[in-house]
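Dear Dr. L.,

I hope this message finds you well. Following up on our conversation about the binding site, I have prepared a predicted three-dimensional model of the protein together with nicotinamide-adenine-dinucleotide. For your records, I am including the exact sequence and ligand specification that went into the calculation, followed by the structure tokens. Please feel free to forward this to your student if that is useful.
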Amino acid sequence: MVAEVRERQEGNLWEMVTQQLDHVAALMHLDPRLHEFLRHCKRTLEVSIPVKMDDGSLRVFTGWRVHHNLAKGPAKGGIRYSPTLTMDEVKALAMLMTWKCAVVDLPYGGAKGGVVCNPSELSDGELERLTRRFTSELILLLGPEKDIPAPDMGTDERVMAWMMDTFSMNVGYSVPGVVTGKPVNIGGSRGRKEAPGRSVAICVEEAAAKLGMRLEGAKVVIQGFGKVGSVVALLLHAIGCKIVAVSDVKGGIYNPQGLDPVRLTAHKRQTKTVSSYRDGDFVTNEELLQLPCDILVPAAVERVITERNADKVRAKLIVEAANGPITPEADAILRDKGVFIVPDILANAGGVIVSYFEWVQDISQFFWTEQEVNERLRQVMRRAFGEVWTIAHDRSVDMRTAAYILAVSRVAEAIRLRGIYP
Ligand code: NAD
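The resulting structure of the complex is given below.
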């Protein structure tokens, strides 16, 4: 019921992503057979998950694992626990993972999974039993050479540790490479937690260099001061940017002279919010998006910049840390205003890139220093940014379209080279 209401409000994400593919396929004159191939998910597994609840009752949860396309390698994608999850949402997110992996040229195909549940209403024991039974139901798909889940909304490194342990117990030996985003102590990678924020900061640097924008003193507004947004603030502050406003779900704080992200982080740790920080003026999230600044980083939730507020955005550069923060209608308005946008599938790809590094380290049983992880992340991001920029320039398209052209062409080429079985 909740899912139905949300689908009516937001439109169907699966329809949106297939339309996006159709648009790019037409632009790049994609072979219609490959286009048709890519419009479908390779496999969708629906499972029922019986869980003994703490009060002695039994609840059966529904879960899915979807593989969109595996032409470039094993399936990679997060596990989402959400009360409003639908199969179409999981399919759409799996397709987006195919493009995200391809745009940064990782040897992976796109996948996604999840369970319809509200993790905040489950006890630790219920959450663990649900996760272990879900993993068992998926076991025919999983494996370091087949399908490697990671955390997503509603799941974390603890859930990944349970998934890894359940898989390992079933095969009889430890298989750390079956999931990524694990605690470092059991095969996780150094630098994984900061990676999405770090790739966003690298995109700010790359874009500023291309646009001739000075970062020293550049004014930055960040919506969302969570795992991604807080890292972006710290990294951009460290290279001389002025963080003039940040926010969380309760609202934001604005100081045109600049805020200190280290003190903000400490304040948030103590009070659980940045909105009560003293050294600035309170602003709502709506006002925050319209503040005068050079760089805007939406790092909270999807669809915050819409046709209602896009023409009031004053930033010259927007780097999408959140997934889908700009609606297609707003995208067109911003493009007409000359705002340069680095799209989500490129900007926040740091998470999946360092997940790839984690998988490589687990398989080789040889672990890298944080500095090595960060340097390799920068290399991958700089190469991908440069490739997207070149397509945007050569074909006179925006960076989002260019990123999709690059991703779709890589996956289509992999299918063409392998041929269509049988
Ligand atoms: P998080 O939960 O740690 O932080 C989200 C922040 O946004 C919090 O400060 C929260 O208070 C704020 N927020 C929530 N709803 C809001 C609203 N309606 N208006 C304004 N602020 C709001 O989440 P995160 O991991 O930092 O993820 C943020 C975004 O980045 C999401 O879109 C996520 O999909 C995307 N992302 C995350 C990762 C990752 O590995 N964490 C990787 C890639 C992309």
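In brief: Residues 244 and 257 are 7 Å apart (CA to CA).

With kind regards,
A. P.
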